[in-house]
Amino acid sequence: xxxxxxxxxxxxxxxxxxxxxxxxxxxxxxxxxxxxxxxxxxxxxxxxxxxxxxxxxxxxxxxxxxxxxxxxxxxxxxxxxxxxxxxxxxxxxxxxxxxxxxxxxxxxxxxxxxxxxxxxxxxxxxxxxxxxxxxxxxxxxxxxxxxxxxxxxxxxxxxxxxxxxxxxxxxxxxxxxxxxxx
Length: 182
What we know:
The chain contains four helices and twelve strands; from the N terminus they run ααβαβββββββαββββ. The protein is α/β, with parallel strands linked by helices. The strands form three sheets. It has a seven-stranded mixed beta sheet. A three-stranded mixed beta sheet has the order 8-7-10, with no helix packed on it.
């Protein structure tokens, strides 16, 4: 995709996501800063913040678990290189601890694909599997939403026993919901 394509896609994705009732009524949203070829999230993060939503962003810990910090705008991000992996943009301010995600009304999850049942394929590091397990242990039931390109919604993804389906996938062309309650 060209830079213009990426900007258009990011704007369309933000628009679709902002229409979700789950985000409209949310006080706290756990999200992430897109990197590489992922659908852009910056416009969405800024729009949520402008609505008065508390936006939590992850910081990768050495064991691949996630800590969380509050997004206060683009100036509150630090580019962090984690070993030989891709650099991530993380909150530069105070860390709230891995359990902070349990306060979120909605969790926006990155992924490589989602299938027609709502099963998500991640990047393989297990960070968000830990987040989902933490939410389950805490009895927290936020809306789980994946942001993807249209071509990344596929027929079937193999799953493992710990995998959990998401509630919805947002793509630039629309929203697809899955069988669980939202």
